[in-house]
Predict the 3D structure of the following.
Amino acid sequence: MRQEKKKLLVIVGPTASGKSALAVMLAKKLGGEIVSADSRQLYRGLEIGSNYPSQKELHAVPHHLIGIVNPKRIFTVAKYQKLARNAVEKIWKRNKLPILVGGTGLYIQAVVDGFVVPEVPPNEPLRTELEKKTAETLAGLLKKKDKKRWRGIDKKNKRRLIRAIEVAEALGRVPKLKFNRLKAEISFIGLRPPKEMLEKSVRKRAGEMMRSGFINETKRLLGSGVTEERIKEFGFEYRRALQYIRGKIKSKKELVDLIVRDTLRYAKRQITWFKRDKRIRWIRND
RNA sequence: GCGUCGGUCGGAUAGCGGCUAUUCCAGCGGACUGUAAAUCCGCCGCCCAUCGGGCACCGAAGGUUCGAGUCCUUCCCGACGCA
């Protein structure tokens, strides 16, 4: 009768903190399978720029949700949520331990807390239309449609305002946020290397990225018909790579320096996000 | 040595003689409802502090003026031109 409680291990932390290595190690030890929570590793063809796990790691342990999406298609948190929960369920069925690993805080939250995203798919024409307006105008529009949501929203953030209007337009108002939490025993591990360590590994990784053909990867994406606009959405590395290809950045050294700076700034945003989650047990690693 | 231009926050930059000295980058902190490596916000001379308050300050020293980052003099430093 008694069924063993389902378990999930979550590993979070800023980029280049050693999450992958730890995850692989624990997976081997505990009989686990890795589910990636990285918003870009999902896409096919971003091996280098989004830092896929190494071939060795990929072979050592089963990995899920890496390189599964066509980069021309727009992906969303809602889709991720479904795919990831599916993967977790399947792993449980195999009596293995799912290990959710990644630096995309929103994606982690979508899986474990299961916030229910309003059932309104992106409405591109509407978005393009709204994009032309100022934040102030948008806030005014939202206020008329849904005063409650208007009160709580960041009134200068156009992207959020547009989404809120999009939802309110379709449903009459923005529904209150609900959670459909994963029923399992979940342990959170956070990796937080000291600043100098992080800086060092970020720099090292940026150099390796160049050597393994990051620029060519970007050119290949362009060649395969992914638009420049789209590539810019794959993160700062790709934006910088484009600038380099277009001659706006003169040398590889400058390119590396800029990517290092961008990465550290990003790492800080990640830490800000994870800091407020009190379930995480932090490890100061190096 | 002579001439010209300039010295303003970690770097760059604005600043008709008149109250709180601008903007950008870097730095620090924060937010997060279907693009999240995205998007957005605050702080950024020093000290105490909860709101807020106290003290500085525009290379240095003098001067003119009710009032100077802004005008004058001298000095120091830098760039350029001429020797």
